[in-house]
Design a protein that fits this description.
- By secondary structure, the chain is mainly α.
- The protein has one domain.
- 85% of the residues lie in helices and 0% in strands.
- It is globular, with a radius of gyration of 18 Å.
Amino acid sequence: MERWKLYAFSAALFAGLTSVVAKAGLKTLSADLGLAVRTAFVFGFILLNTWLWTGMGKTAFALQAASWRSIWLLALSGLTTTLSWVCYYRAMKEGTVTYVSLIDKSSILVTLVLSVLLLGEPMTWRIAGGTTLILGGLLVLAGGK
């Protein structure tokens, strides 16, 4: 199996675990405070990961060499991640993980459209078919509860 596929399937596994564990952790905390606690740990874990795999010196050098455009785009990505997480945690606090998580995963539809329009990635019949199936599943879910 190609390494990127292993990473992608691992990401899906960990994302699924994240939702269930987070819902359990929100029992005695507000959605916003729970998200803040989680994010503080994520920040620490990401820093540790970066230093272990890249090293302190290489990390600092890479940041200095990065273009401002890259930094601003990553900052914008951070903002959209924040907005997504705030909405996700508030939805999970009030709703069921099953429905919230399934609806949240429909973000793949936005990703597919924008990756074709903005990044110039190819739209194949296979991707179009998968997108149609995902959209159909979302419509089934949205009408069900």
